[in-house]
Structures
1.
Amino acid sequence: MQHTRTWSDVYGSARALFEGRAGGHGWLVATPPELAAPLAAQLEHLDGKGRVALLVHDGLTPLLAALREERPRGVVVVAPQALSGGPAVTVPDHEVAGDALHYREGGAFPAWSGEDGLNAPQGECAAAGAVASLGLPVVVAAPEGVAQALTAWMDRTPHGR
């Protein structure tokens, strides 16, 4: 896929868009900053139709905003290790003070199951719960497995790759 655009959102999150061949679906890859380094190169080497939006976020509010804006077919959440599902989580309510924006975030997020049927451990992942709270399919992958997870998901999806 070709990297076509990079920008910052209102929350200060880095965003990038990668576009493949015509057709296909829109996908979102969401990662915390500390796991983001290998992702652009993986997405540039991804062979597929549609587009992938990359979100490097700190906190759940930027993720929820990007999900509502992008309305992806599916979301790959990047975590230290791949997970197959996780319990409901409650993120304590707290205030976030950025350079130009102050907001509150927190709340209860549901249990989730990965769309990939991966035989991986279960574990807590607030970002995956946030995705599930909007009724979107989610996969949790380790940084080195993002391209593989997206490729497999596209292959399972009609008109996906």
Note: Strands lie at 2-8, 14-19, 21-31, 49-56, 74-78, 85-86, 89-97, 102-109, 112-113, 138-141.
2.
Amino acid sequence: MYDLITEPTGSYDLTVKSIQLKQGGLYRCKALRYVESYTFAQVITFSEFNPTCTSNTTKNNEAVEAEYIEYSCERRYKANVTAKMQWRELSSGEDIKAKDESSNGIVKFSIVVEIKPSHNGDSFTCHTYFDKPQSRDNFADNIPINNNAFNETFTFPKLSVYCKY
């Protein structure tokens, strides 16, 4: 199930083999030289390689001016940290406030956009990231917070916007 490899520096590398979704979470390792000294590692597991993202546009990504389009992304995961999603309009680079529909083990955020002529050729992105834990108790330093260790962004196809009349 795992390998524990001793490095020449005296540190250890833990390699988990064939990990399953349910095995995600916070792991601790007791230092053998010190009494009650622990190191923590966060193992984040996902049930699928990519998030499941949908929209109610046509299969050709066509939309009519003044219509509302809903975009949604979700991901099943297991960890002791909270996953979040940040939505952005690609052309303007502006963040869009999203509805958080997350529940235990599933991160899901959605947006509803009123289509304007300026959205023609535009796209929207959904970036998954992890929140910094509120407490430093049992804190793992390997959590990918605000860095490129975990950088996942889903980009929806560009829209073709048509006039309503």
Note: The radius of gyration is 21 Å.
